[in-house]
């Protein structure tokens, strides 16, 4: 019977907590929480350091490949292209031909005439004569 009374005493403590009663506070709980937070911060720093080292190693390998095959970084290519465009535009009042997109009116008229001639070949004789006049 004494055993069962001890069980009920433990149960009433838990019931008191569930019903909104005050919980027993562990005097070392704050220290434990601070230690836990510090451990998490430390783990996060170690993880970031590890990833930074891995990325540095990857970049070394990438650079070796670039050097071996004579490739350039994307940023370097863009910078060179931009410099070339600015250099071409410096003394000119008009924009360079490369900057004009294809199909914006800079087509040769010879191409258009050859297309017209090609179409006229497929027309019957009297229609060809009408269009040639």
Automatic annotation (TrEMBL):
Keywords: Cell projection, Coiled coil, Cytoplasm, Exocytosis, Neurotransmitter transport, Nucleus, Synapse, Transport. Residues 14-84 have a biased composition (Basic and acidic residues). Residues 1-112 are annotated as: Disordered. The keyword Flavoprotein does not apply. Gene3D superfamilies: Single Helix bin. The keyword rRNA-binding does not apply. It is found in: Cytoplasm, Cytosol; Nucleus; Perikaryon; Presynapse. CDD domains: Complexin_NTD_CPLX_I_II (cd22808). Belongs to the complexin/synaphin family. Binds to the SNARE core complex containing SNAP25, VAMP2 and STX1A. This is Complexin-2. The gene is Cplx2_0.
């Amino acid at each position: 019977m004494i055993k069962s009374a001890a069980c009920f005493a433990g149960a009433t403590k838990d019931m008191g907590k569930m019903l909104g009663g005050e919980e027993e506070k562990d005097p070392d709980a704050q220290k434990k929480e601070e230690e836990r937070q510090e451990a998490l911060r430390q783990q996060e720093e170690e993880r970031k350091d590890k990833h930074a080292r891995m990325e540095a190693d990857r970049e070394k390998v990438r650079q070796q490949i670039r050097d071996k095959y004579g490739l350039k970084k994307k940023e370097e290519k863009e910078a060179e292209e931009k410099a070339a465009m600015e250099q071409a535009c410096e003394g000119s009042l008009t924009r360079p031909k490369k900057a004009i997109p294809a199909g914006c009116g800079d087509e040769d008229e010879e191409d258009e005439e050859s297309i017209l001639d090609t179409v006229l070949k497929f027309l019957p004789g009297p229609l060809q004569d009408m269009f040639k006049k």
